Amino acid sequence: MSKENIFSSNDKQLCGFKIGKGHYAVEVLDVQEVVKPQNVTPVPLGPDYIDGLINLRGQIVTAINIRKLFGLEENNSEDYMNIIVSSGENLYSLVVDEIMDVMDIENSRFEDTPDTIDEKISSFISGVYKLEDKLITLLSLEKILSLEMTEEK
């Protein structure tokens, strides 16, 4: 069965996750896999939001801590997850507090980023989906990873 038969063109599939009390998501098509905590090798003199490097089955993955990127208080818990995404030939891990379900959300529920969101965070947001019981903030991987690529140079 083709994807068009399963989802209407007005739906978007999102991989949801939590950071603190907030609900966030990235598009499922951008996600390669979700993995449990991995051994992280710190990177000296790297930006504070980079936890370090992960060896994922022989591939080096840069771990980007979304909590730190947003300037939120650190979570010292060992309960976190890695969302593995790719950009070109490079792999990146988005370090998040908790993984939620994959969600099918109608595009009609999408709204632009509100002006009231902190500018430090709003620059990484594509918009917001209004659900009955919560808001899902859609992150822009392009903006997050372009920041990382700029820092590498």
Descriptive account of the structure:
The chain has 153 residues and is of the alpha+beta class. It has one domain (3-152): Beta Barrel (OB fold (Dihydrolipoamide Acetyltransferase, E2P)), CATH 2.40.50.180. Helix content is 16%, strand content 47%. The strands form 2 sheets. A 6-stranded mixed β-sheet has the order 9-1-2-12-11-10. The protein has a 6-stranded mixed β-sheet with strand order 3-7-8-6-5-4. Strand 1 and strand 2 form a beta hairpin. The longest helix has 12 residues, at 141-152.
Record keyword descriptors for this entry:
4 helices, six-stranded mixed β-sheet, globular, 16% helix, alpha+beta, 153 residues, disordered N terminus, OB fold (Dihydrolipoamide Acetyltransferase, E2P)
- Approximate shape: globular
Number of strands: 12
The number of helical runs is: 4
Strands ordered across the widest β-sheet: 9-1-2-12-11-10
What is the CATH class designation? Mainly Beta
As an assembly, this protein is: single chain
What CATH architecture would you give? Beta Barrel
Distance between the termini: 44 Å
Strand content range: over 45%
Radius of gyration equals: 16 Å
Helix content: 10-25%
